[in-house]
Design a protein that fits this description.
Radius of gyration: 14 Å
Shape: globular
GO biological process, one term: positive regulation of gene expression
Number of domains: 1
GO molecular function: carbohydrate binding; galactoside binding
Order of helices and strands: EEEEEEEEEEEE
Pfam families: Gal-bind_lectin
Helix content: under 10%
Largest sheet: 6 strands, antiparallel
Protein name: Galectin
CATH class: Mainly Beta
Mean pLDDT: 93
Keywords: Lectin
Strand content: over 45%
């Protein structure tokens, strides 16, 4: 289901129809402004952030984390190669739900896997995108 195809005000919230399950794919496309510092893509339950994906240009990394009952877990910051996002350029992030993790690719290149901290995928009911970016498309 395509939820948006034009630039939208941020943060942008999208309900996830149905439920998440292994092989379910979420796609977010946009443009990173020239002076961007950070943006985020969150997969959320009603109360928690199951997956926080946070490219940080001011730190030259992509932070991943989970927030449960208001408490953040331990950040993951390592990347297999250089920061895949560039200021002033477009991007497409594809998040695929696997059996035990989120698999993330950027512009068609595999980037990372993030193990589920919240095991009940079905409880993830919405997507939030915000920060410094021009959002062009979300597909859930």
């Amino acid at each position: 289901m395509d939820c948006c195809k034009m630039s939208h005000q941020l943060p942008h919230h999208v309900s996830i129809p149905g439920e998440l399950y292994p092989s379910r794919v979420i796609t977010v496309s946009g443009i990173v402004p020239h002076k961007a510092k950070r943006f985020y893509i969150n997969l959320c339950t009603d109360t928690d952030i199951a997956f926080h994906f946070n490219p940080r240009f001011d730190e030259n990394t992509v932070v991943r984390n989970t927030e449960i009952q208001g408490v953040w877990g331990t950040e993951e910051r390592s990347l297999p190669f250089n920061m895949p996002f560039r200021q002033g350029h477009s991007f497409t992030v594809v998040i695929t739900c696997e059996d035990d993790c989120y698999s993330v690719s950027v512009d068609g290149q595999p980037l990372l896997e993030y193990a589920y901290c919240l095991k009940d995928l079905w409880a993830t009911v919405h997507l939030e995108v915000g920060g410094h970016l021009e959002l062009s498309k979300v597909s859930v």
